[in-house]
Amino acid sequence: MKERENLWLRPEQPARGPRPRFGRAEMTRAAIAIADAEGLAALSMRRLAADLDAGPMSPYSYITGKDELIELMVDAVTAEFLRPDGAACGDWRTELRDLARRMRSAMHRHPWMAEIGLRRQAASPNRIRLFEQVLGVLDALELSMDAMLTTMIMIFVHVYGFVQIELADQEAQRHTGLELSAWMRRQLPYIESVVSAGDHPMFARMTAEAGRTLTGFDERWEYGLERLLDSIQGSAGGRRAAGETRPPV
Amino acid sequence: MKERENLWLRPEQPARGPRPRFGRAEMTRAAIAIADAEGLAALSMRRLAADLDAGPMSPYSYITGKDELIELMVDAVTAEFLRPDGAACGDWRTELRDLARRMRSAMHRHPWMAEIGLRRQAASPNRIRLFEQVLGVLDALELSMDAMLTTMIMIFVHVYGFVQIELADQEAQRHTGLELSAWMRRQLPYIESVVSAGDHPMFARMTAEAGRTLTGFDERWEYGLERLLDSIQGSAGGRRAAGETRPPV
DNA sequence: GTTAACTTGATACAGCGTATCGAGTTTTCC
DNA sequence: GGAAAACTCGATACGCTGTATCAAGTTAAC
């Protein structure tokens, strides 16, 4: 375990030299606190150092650069994606639904995580644990390894994408300084001009319903999640013919 | 049309003053050329101005800032997502499959588009045209407007996410300067240590198969796309019971 | 006790987005 | 026709970024 972490990144504790004033864990915690509170854009190496009461270049004693800092942050939040120990229930559909909800709520706590998205693919301890858990759940579906991996990708893509869209507005708002409604109102005249031109009937129907009947994002999220789980169910047992259900486990 | 574009952004042609040396379209084209060739990180306002043989602040005469530049770029590439005029075939499944493939190949030509991802949600002419086309196709499925919108989100999320993962490696490679294999080899010792520790059996199975039997990304993409289309098919007609097919259109 | 390994902080460099301002150019209005 | 408004354009500058470099101080090992 210790040895493994040392293989992931270079060893933390030095052989000689003065005792470090803090550790990688504290640095990661401080960085996450900044990004949670003020967004990823507010996180800079100087700012992190200042929050730790250290000189501007101090963080570089612990990590090689900002990329590694973000790798540490991502790994830390990935831990919040994991199923708590001993909480396995045996039903793959429930397991995957709970996983997706855990991921979403973790990204609500750490919006920058959704912002980073699927771009960081580096192996890290908690990422590997997450893979292990997801593959362990998918194992009940009698898929080929290829299908299992693609299914896992589909789950991650779905969750990250939905949360990105959910959080896009409030991130844009933070970035531009406009309030949410002001940002939307900025494009309203253009949208209305398109609608009234009459050559986009479906789009017009959408905006017409947007004002009254459309549900909130929570309902959309749950609906989309069940559709995703349906598609996984449909691919179980190696068969992929549409409309074919899988025999009970 | 002209009027509509003027509502989207402020008018392009000034009433008085010297003739602009170039237009917004040329600026957008130059910016896309930079991002295509050298990545989004290489695109700066100064660099763009230099490529246009203009002073550093010249681009600001045409657009309000970098955000608007990227909005223009995104809208331009979104045009490549659109179905060519008169190419509608009537079968929703074929339409959606073709749309997904068009999007993927456009993002292969413009990898920065995948990088920007789902974060930019602003309405723009081609984005509205894209909505119109997708909703027009989904209309055949007899869904509620809510379900249609969520389905559309699912499609975009799926395509963007898959392409992001596909391109993540080569983007990381461009960013760090390492070759692809070197980047992967960097984490290989750690992965091997995890596997040989024995407490991640599923992950070990995955890496074992990765060397021999696993297919390339093209096959994964096609498999995932058909699963997505299955799940849309399953939700048709307002019914959502798993395994229920829709009567032929 | 010496030396090697390390932390720390200052300084510096090249780059970024863009605010500001002055000068030049073209159109509109009186 | 002349004045003024509206615009382009370029230079300069500010505050910010990641981080390379280097000197000084601290600690453990030999």
TrEMBL record, chains A, B:
InterPro entries: Homeodomain-like_sf, HTH-type_TetR-like_transc_reg, Repressor_TetR_C, Tet_transcr_reg_TetR-rel_C_sf. It comes from the Bacteria. Keywords: DNA-binding, Transcription, Transcription regulation. It holds the Pfam family TetR_C_1. Signal peptide: none annotated. Residues 1-21 are annotated as: Disordered. Residues 90-232 form the Tetracycline repressor TetR C-terminal domain. This is TetR/AcrR family transcriptional regulator C-terminal domain-containing protein. It comes from Actinoallomurus oryzae.
